């Protein structure tokens, strides 16, 4: 029997979020139904609504979620009814060219549910990032569910499903930060602060937070920043000089750009030590372009990497990070600024850029 439950959709570009009846089909082979307990409001949901991802409206928004498996389809072995899970959008296939060469984090054929959720008139919904979790029950592929320790509250654990994992992974997976290294992080929102927490977890001894808002720099200290730089009135040269001044005159071993603008990427490029690493985790605007002196790209060496979803493997990383949180070694709960109800998602979108909210999380 299909379920009819309330879900948050974006019907058209720029249209306000609506709470409507959504029909969730019975799980097909390999599918599971998850009763969503909490789902964070991510910038990507706003991008879907604003037409910045694609135009496959209407979208069922929400993708940073935790909940409990309530039904399973034929052949499901990965989870069972009652399991407490965090949802992910990297259910690796094991068969594509990336998986076959062992680069599972680049899997190009990740699994999604075999059946579509619809409006009551039969209109198919496009679930955000193949999940769609601003809803009481959602349908996903079994491999989109990762079991984690029940002791972590859903509003905390669910955040690993996207932005927080992206930031932590940018430091520990993509940047491969090592003990004693220096790390600079540009942009101290949710993803940037997660990168700071990741750098601390990895043992970085100097962690420099850069932002244009003093309050966000203060917040960054709670996640592990050892130094802060307000870049609001600084030129590119002054930003670079500030990072060099805090790293023995050399620049940071790893610079993580959690903003993704040409100017912040140039800051990252020049604020790293010779042969250092730049990690881009902030998503650039589709029309943005960057110019760099080609000889500097060669002469400064090192590596320029992009971090997709923190290069995470959910089955490896989610349970480990939840365990570290429960041991008091990773302040995951500090990312939850407020818990809200589903009818406050639109208001939460308005707070994404105001600098006071890391994450608003809808509780079900
Ligand atoms: Zn694959
Ligand atoms: Zn997200």
Please describe what this structure looks like:
The protein has 364 residues and is of the alpha/beta class. The protein has two domains: 3-161 and 331-363, Quinone Oxidoreductase, Chain A, domain 1, CATH 3.90.180.10; 168-307, Rossmann fold (3-Layer(aba) Sandwich), CATH 3.40.50.720. It is 26% helix and 26% strand. It has eleven helices and 18 strands. It has helices at residues 43-49, 97-100, 154-157, 163-174, 190-202, 214-223, 236-245, 262-271, 294-299, 314-326, 345-351, and strands at 3-10, 18-24, 31-40, 59-60, 64-72, 84-87, 118-119, 126-127, 137-141, 145-147, 182-186, 206-211, 227-230, 252-257, 272-280, 303-306, 336-340, 359-363. The strands form three sheets. Strands 3, 5, 6, 9, 10, 17 and 18 form a seven-stranded mixed β-sheet that branches. It has a six-stranded parallel β-sheet with strand order 13-12-11-14-15-16, sandwiched between helices. Strands 7-2-1-4-8 form a five-stranded mixed β-sheet, with no helix packed on it. α7 packs parallel to α8. It is globular, with a radius of gyration of 20 Å. Bound molecules: zinc ion (2 copies). One zinc ion binds at residues 92-96, 98-99, 107-109.
Assembly annotation:
single chain
Structural class: alpha/beta
According to DSSP, the number of beta strands is 18
- Report the major sheet: 7 strands, mixed
Question: Number of domains in the coordinates?
Answer: 2
- Give the CATH H-level superfamily of the largest domain: Medium-chain alcohol dehydrogenases, catalytic domain
CATH fold type of the largest domain: Quinone Oxidoreductase, Chain A, domain 1
Strand coverage percent: 25-35%
Rg value: 20 Å
Ligand identities? zinc ion
Low-confidence stretches: none
CA-based shape = globular
Mean pLDDT: 97
Query: What's the CATH first level of the largest domain?
Result: Alpha Beta
Measured as a percent range, the helix fraction is 25-40%
CATH 2nd-level architecture of the largest domain = Alpha-Beta Complex
**End-to-end C-alpha gap:** 22 Å
Number of helices: 11
Topology as H/E string? EEEHEEEHEEEEHHEHEHEHEHEHEHEHE
């Amino acid at each position: 029997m299909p379920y009819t439950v309330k879900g948050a959709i974006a019907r058209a570009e720029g249209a306000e979020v609506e709470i409507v009846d959504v029909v969730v089909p019975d799980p097909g082979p390999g599918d599971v139904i998850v009763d969503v307990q909490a789902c964070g409001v991510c910038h990507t949901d706003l991008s879907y609504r604003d037409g910045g991802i694609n135009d496959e409206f209407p979208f069922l928004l929400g993708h940073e979620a935790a909940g409990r498996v309530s039904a399973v389809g034929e052949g499901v072995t990965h989870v069972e009814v009652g399991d407490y899970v965090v949802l992910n959008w990297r259910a690796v296939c094991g068969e594509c060219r990336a998986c076959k060469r062992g680069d599972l984090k680049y899997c190009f054929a990740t699994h999604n549910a075999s059946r579509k959720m619809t409006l009551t008139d039969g209109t198919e919904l496009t679930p955000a990032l193949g999940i769609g979790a601003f809803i009481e029950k959602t349908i996903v592929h079994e491999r989109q569910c990762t079991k984690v320790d029940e002791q972590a509250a859903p509003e905390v654990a669910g955040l690993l499903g996207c932005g927080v994992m992206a930031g932590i992974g940018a430091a520990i997976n993509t940047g491969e930060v090592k003990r004693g290294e220096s790390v600079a992080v540009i942009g101290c929102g949710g993803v940037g602060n997660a990168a700071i927490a990741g750098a601390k977890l990895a043992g970085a001894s100097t962690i420099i937070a850069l932002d244009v808002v003093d309050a966000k720099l203060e917040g960054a200290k709670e996640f592990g920043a050892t130094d802060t730089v307000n870049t609001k009135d600084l030129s590119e040269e002054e930003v670079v000089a500030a990072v060099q001044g805090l790293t023995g005159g050399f620049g940071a071993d790893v610079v993580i750009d959690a903003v993704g603008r040409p100017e912040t990427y140039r800051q990252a490029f020049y604020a790293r030590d010779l042969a250092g690493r730049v990690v881009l985790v902030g998503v650039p605007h589709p029309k943005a372009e960057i110019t760099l002196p080609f000889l500097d790209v060669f002469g400064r060496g090192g590596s320029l990497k992009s971090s997709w979803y923190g290069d995470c493997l959910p089955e490896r990383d989610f349970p480990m990070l939840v365990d570290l949180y429960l041991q008091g070694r990773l302040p995951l709960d500090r990312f939850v600024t407020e818990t809200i109800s589903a009818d406050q998602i639109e208001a939460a979108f308005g707070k994404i850029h105001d600098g006071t909210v890391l994450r608003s999380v809808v509780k079900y």
